[in-house]
Amino acid sequence: MDDLFGSGPGNDEDDDGSVAAGGMPPRSTAPRSPLAVRMRPRTLDDVVGQQHLLGQGSPLRQLAAGADAAGPAGPSSLILWGPPGTGKTTLAHVIANGPGRKFVELSAITAGVKDVRRVMDDALTARDLYKTTTVLFLDEIHRFNKAQQDALLPGVENRWVVLVAATTENPSFSVVSPLLSRSLLLTLKPLTDADIEGLLVRAVDDPRGLDGKVELEATALAHLVRLSGGDARRALTALEAAAGVAFGDADDADNGPVKVELRHTERALDVAAVRYDRAGDQHYDVASAFIKSIRGSDVDAALHYLARMLEAGEDPRFVARRIVISAAEDVGMADPTALQTAVAAAQAVQLIGMPEGRIILAEAVVHLATAPKSNAAYMGINQAIADVRGGMGNGIPAHLRDAHYPGSKQLGHGVGYKYAHDAPHGVATQQYPPDDLVGRDYYRPTSNGAERDIAVRLERLRKIVRGK
User: Residue 341's domain spans which residues?
Assistant: First the structure.
């Protein structure tokens, strides 16, 4: 059983090409490829998930079938957009397995324009001399700058290569328009729990995987599925690590498959995958869910999304700014102290930093989520702006105009103005808005929280001011 992490089917050669007696590599040679690599599908039928992209006649099917099936009008460039571990690299390898294909892989993290041009030159030679099509897999294409992406255009446009570019960020923002317009954009979806479970079960029994040398208990399987976060690579890596822990605990005697139990998976991987990209869709999606949970008064969901952002390394100042906005927009005058709490939290986070800043942010989130809600002030300013943009509010009543400069009195400025503090209760009957906005109500307080009392007071104030 100790051969589990040594050599196996289809992997009998050392890195230097030597073969040990009996087709097994010596124990001192390099370790076997990672489980995630060994289990990589060889055909589209073996791919887990992404069934929305794998129907008969789909572009992926055409490319995987080879140049003849794709035809001269078939796709020659793909951009695969999706979260990590959803099969972008796998699909590139499957496409490269087609007849008359050669696979070349570049990473945008380390490659440059010279590397791209070298691949294009080699691809042109392979096509013209050997009738071989080069499949160029470019990982993390969003890390390429404009000049680097532009270097891909001749090869894509002239079909020197079949470009398969992978990205975890929205290509609309990270890929230059000329390349985007010449490529077919395919969106990969996160794998479901059922997809991950099926993949793990297959990896346990497959000769390329663990070859039946382990038995995965149901609780351990469920734990691996939950911690994978829809990432196939992470799930397989965790399974391999858990199997290694189980073998370390097992006796040397060969008593059949080693059981991988929940305790083994907990020791191998005890932190759930956090799906978050600070500059892409997840950044905005999680922030949106965070604010909407506060607005919806679900304090538990709000704390979850707060934790998700902080654990993913989000800038706590960004979180604090969103909390300040929510205090004014969603809580408003229903609890005027919410804004004070939010501003204080933002200042305190800048003062003390992380990780202690999480406590302050959490207090502010709890205050806002549990506070009564009112967007009356927010809606009021929006309606007032709409009227201004619509051309309403012509002029300013003469009695409200500045009367401090010489000659202003002759113009009627300030004439008839009533000083509010001279009136009973400090409120005078007087016209304040322009003529065409008299009687216009922008602020409509709710009956929630402090606004319940404000509404009663506001009704009395409007009656006095408007002389009703």
Answer: 281-370
